[in-house]
Amino acid sequence: MNDNTHTQIFSDVSHPVLKKTLDIICGKWRLYIIFQLSEQDRRYGELRRMVPDVSEKVLIQELKALVALGVLQKKSYNEVPPRVEYGLTEKAREVLPILQQIMVIGKTFLVP
Amino acid sequence: MNDNTHTQIFSDVSHPVLKKTLDIICGKWRLYIIFQLSEQDRRYGELRRMVPDVSEKVLIQELKALVALGVLQKKSYNEVPPRVEYGLTEKAREVLPILQQIMVIGKTFLVP
Question: Which positions fall inside the HTH hxlR-type domain (chains A, B) (predicted)?
Answer without folding.
Answer: 15-112
